[in-house]
Design a protein that fits this description.
This protein has helices at 16-20, 42-51, 98-111, 148-157, 186-216, 245-255, 259-279, 314-323, 350-363, 367-382, and strands spanning 11-13, 29-36, 61-64, 74-77, 86-87, 121-126, 135-142, 300-307, 333-340. It is of the alpha+beta class and 386 residues long. The strands form 3 sheets. The chain has a 4-stranded mixed sheet with strand order 2-7-6-5, covered by helices on one side. The two termini are 39 Å apart. It is a single-pass membrane protein.
């Protein structure tokens, strides 16, 4: 058993977003797969967790209470028994398809529930050699504990360099992409500032009108990939594919985009090509050389949940775990609608250019802030079950 202490209160109210993640429609987990070049040593992992993750209050707290009858969910600190959280399954290390086994194992994790009488996280250690690792660690963490970015930062802050066991891993610093206002002075700067503000307001207005219309009546086009009501509760299978980051950077530089632009462009390309095949009656090209079988004006969007709370750096998180100091943590969830351009362009790079235009507009909009404020207001007025 591991006791807990520090500056954090022994009992803290759960945030509205955290409570939302415990409702049936949003009860979800963050699953992270980590590969190791060495065969995992369970005892060393336990020692490392005691010195790092368990010092974070969310990893050593249980959820108590409910949102009914005027109650309120809250986090309560508790002692942690690592044997209840670390799972080492007995598996055949010489199996024929270890990578497929990992996919199956992760898929099974998405279907299993968690024991709410203990802190809501698990670590599964697979002593299995895959094509990229000699052993695998799979974290399953309830989303009410934190968002994906913060959790990845926390896990990184729990590691150290092989070359220097006392040093944190080196993380590339994000380059601040300014909007250009700092490079303009005089009348040009004033005019640009006015234009910048007007476009911000216009983008926000357009995004919020579309968001409200979507809530009320504006639906996506019925396509072969549109699920029926209740599909979100069906069993899931998570399949991963690898691609070269150098190739992504090559496309990024060629289109003067970002890596996120390229990833969204790849997603649009994959969905467009898939739907094009599904709409083809005989699998052959239907529209001359272009082979475009898609109906016109397909409306297909993704509702992306984003955390607008600024994530703490790994240095701050490492200091928190070493000295029990406080750091900002938690979910401040907002919603952003991302429209997909479902087309078959002649130039495949057009997928990336279209994605860049979409993301640039979303960056220059207050949609995320507005949806967060609206969601928080609704929770305050009508409660979590509304």
């Amino acid at each position: 058993m591991v006791a807990v202490s520090g500056e954090y209160a022994l009992e803290e109210p759960m945030s509205p977003a955290g409570r939302l993640f415990h409702t049936r429609g949003f009860n979800c987990f963050v699953i992270a797969v980590v590969g190791s070049s060495e065969v995992v040593d369970v005892d060393r992992v336990k020692i490392g967790l005691q010195q790092s993750l368990l010092k974070h209050p969310r990893f050593s707290s249980v959820m108590e209470g409910d949102d009914g009858k005027g109650g309120r969910r809250r986090w309560v600190r508790t002692a942690v028994n690592l044997d209840n959280h670390i799972v080492v399954p007995g598996i055949d290390p010489d199996m024929d398809s270890p990578d497929e086994f990992v996919e199956d194992y992760v898929s099974e994790l998405t279907r299993s529930s968690m024991d709410t009488s203990i802190p809501l996280w698990e670590l599964h250690l697979l002593k299995l050699k895959t094509k990229n690792a000699n052993s695998i660690g799979i974290f399953k963490i309830h989303h009410s504990i934190g968002d994906g970015t913060s959790l990845m930062s926390l896990i990184l802050a729990s590691t150290r360099k092989i070359s220097d066991p006392d040093a944190l891993p080196s993380i590339p610093k994000a380059k601040k992409s300014g909007n250009g206002r700092g490079h303009r002075t005089g009348l040009g700067g004033v005019l640009f500032g006015i234009w910048w503000g007007l476009t911000l307001l216009w983008n926000t207005l357009v995004d919020m009108v579309l968001f409200v219309m979507t809530v009320l009546f504006l639906k996506d086009t019925d396509t072969p990939i549109k699920g029926k009501p209740g599909v979100e509760f069906n069993p899931k299978r998570i399949v991963y594919r690898e691609f070269s980051l150098d190739d992504v950077k090559l496309v990024k530089n060629a289109t003067k985009a970002t890596i996120n632009d390229v990833i969204l462009g790849m997603t649009q390309a994959g969905v467009s090509q898939y739907l094009n095949r599904k709409y083809s009656a005989d699998g052959e090209k239907a529209d001359g050389a272009s082979g475009n079988n898609l109906p016109e004006n397909i409306r297909l969007r993704a509702n992306v949940l984003v955390n607008i709370r600024q994530s703490a750096g790994i240095e701050d998180l490492a200091e928190m775990m070493e000295r029990n100091s406080k750091v900002k943590w938690g979910n401040k969830i907002a919603y952003v609608l991302i429209p997909f351009k479902i087309t078959i362009p002649e130039d495949p790079l057009d997928y990336v250019r279209q994605a860049k235009a979409i993301i640039d507009m979303k960056k220059h909009s207050l949609e995320a802030i507005a949806t967060y404020r609206i969601g928080k207001l609704l929770l305050d007025l009508f409660g979590i079950k509304s």
